[in-house]
Amino acid sequence: MPRTTSRVPRTLLAATATAALALSTALTTATAPAVAAPAPVTAQAPETGTTAPAAEAGTTGATSGFWACSVPSGYTYTGSRSSYTCSGGASYQTTEFYVQPPADGLWACRTMPGYTHTAVMSSHTCSGGGSYTTSQFLLYKPVTGMWACSVPSGFTYTAAQQSHTCSGGASYTTTQFLLRAL
Question: Is the CB of residue 99 less than 8 Å from the CB of residue 72?
Fold first, then answer.
């Protein structure tokens, strides 16, 4: 038995897609909150075996992330991997770091002077491709009235509380500090 098919003209398909997009945009705009809270910077290192995103690969400014054999002073890193790139042609792998300047809301593999951290999470991202987890720290410039996991230089604290926020997902609680600038 011959098979029958119906052919929809391309212009009709294009018009339908355009109408669906317009409707989707209108609904999203109508239901979006008037003011959105800023989201933490979630830029993480590209997955192991990949390169930096194309937009970052060609930039060398202070705000770009890049893979490096060491972490320069004033920078932090948001991921690490084992590779032959930094071993100087040897047959063993060394650690390579995805380097970024510190920024508010950045999940980093280490804390930075001039910043505090407001949360900790356990992750494989900073372990160099290992099977174990390490801590990542949510960085922020300290300000009076901020709850933080540590008390940075130039600050004291006016209250403390127990919380899971700074324990990296562990079952125990750690202390958070309500900061006050000196």
Answer: yes
